[in-house]
Amino acid sequence: MDRIRMTTPLVEMDGDEMTRILWQMIKDHLILPYIDLKTEYYDLGLENRNKTDDKVTVDSANATLKYGVAVKCATITPNQARMSEYDLKQMWKSPNGTIRSILDGTVFRAPILVKGIIPYVSNWTKPITIARHAYGDVYKNVEIRVPGKGKAYLVFEGEDGNTIKETIHEFDGEGIIQGIHNTDKSISSFARACFNYAIDTKQDLWFSSKDTISKKYDHRFKDIFEEIYNNEYKTKFEELGIEYFYTLIDDAVARVIRSKGGFIWACKNYDGDVMSDMVATAYGDLSMMTSVLVSPSGVYEYEAAHGTVQRHYYKHLKGEETSTNSIATIFAWTGALRKRAELDGINELCEFADKLEKACIKTVEDGKMTKSLSLISTCKDPVILNSEDFIKAIAETFESLR
Ligand code: NAP
Ligand code: MG
């Protein structure tokens, strides 16, 4: 059988530990037999990041800007323990952080739903996608532990010499102060990424903040979203029959819980951090969460939401059997291949991606799954497979669908 040809390379970012092992298995069993795969390969494994002084991460992000679509394996973000484990020259920054800042992107996370794994919120029958603004606010804060009596001010010194000064609080005794910021540029990028992704996936977009209390800060977010929507996206949304709406975060939380799912919830940085963990847990399993970084210029980087599954990797190194779920990593590949197919007009490649996703879901619904899924599945007698046999079972299902 002829393998599907590609015209533009996909940027392939390899990674670390157990997910690096899965990466190769996925390519061997599910991709290479069917696709004449064209990738520009970047090894983001920690060893190579260290060897290249992390230049490889920057290069891979620039290649993504050039070609438009990347698929990324999970990578280690070094901490003190990794410094000695990998004999690192320095504590390299999180690759995701580096890539995100070069792409100026927003991260969208959505669960993969299968029958037999029932969300804790039983009316959630469709996925809820969380879009998290990934710049500023409390993540770039400046804090002071107030030692005692005194006055705190918020001061802005303009380059033009004009100064704005507000009193924060007159302290009677010890306390705390925090300064946070954001920029119109970053908020606008975030808004555009959200509107584009809503159009791309034909889903409603919700945005929430606390503008009733934060009358300048959060209100600015609300205004920027509204302005950009009205000027650039309203017509397209109406054409597609999708909706943008803003609501107070308190109201959004209540509506989300009562909803059926099937929309994008755009959140400020902190809200997105907290809510994405809540939503992921409520849908069942971290290993069933997909993640895509979308830049305001329409560049896409697909990955699994989970990490390198270190504990399983150490078992694997000891020669013990592992049962690691590869579905989110497979969906990173199908997401990237589908996007590449759409951009290049390759129908077969689009169909391949759809069919491979179907095969993943059908395999689990047929009762064949990895250990962690079996623990939350309502399936009576699940067959628990090891990491490689699970991928082989997906390949078999895929063949049966052809
Ligand atoms: P993790 O790799 O997400 O794994 C945490 C635990 O979740 C695992 O020990 C496992 O539980 C379960 N799990 C996650 N994915 C699974 C899968 N596909 N199949 C089965 N079980 C799965 O997080 P971590 O152990 O905290 O972090 C490990 C490394 O990943 C760290 O170095 C971190 O820097 C990195 N990381 C990278 C990314 C990224 O590249 N996007 C994201 C997060 C973390 P059990 O052990 O109970 O089976
Ligand atoms: Mg978090």
Q: What is the correct CATH architecture of the largest domain? A: 3-Layer(aba) Sandwich
**Sheet with the most strands, sense and barrel status:** 10 strands, mixed
| Bound heterogens, unique | NADP nicotinamide-adenine-dinucleotide phosphate, magnesium ion
Tell me the count of domains: 3
| CATH superfamily grouping of the largest domain | Isopropylmalate Dehydrogenase
Arithmetic mean pLDDT = 95
Provide a descriptive summary of the structure in words.
The chain is an alpha/beta fold and 402 residues long. It contains 14 helices and 18 strands. The strands form five sheets. A ten-stranded mixed β-sheet has the order 4-2-5-16-15-6-7-14-12-13, with helices on both faces. A two-stranded parallel sheet has the order 1-3. Strand 12 (204-209), helix 7 (217-240) and strand 13 form a beta-alpha-beta unit. Helix 11 (327-344) runs antiparallel to helix 12 and helix 12 (347-365) crosses helix 14 (387-401). The mean pLDDT is 95. Bound molecules: NADP nicotinamide-adenine-dinucleotide phosphate (NAP) and magnesium ion. Residues 273, 277 line the site of magnesium ion.
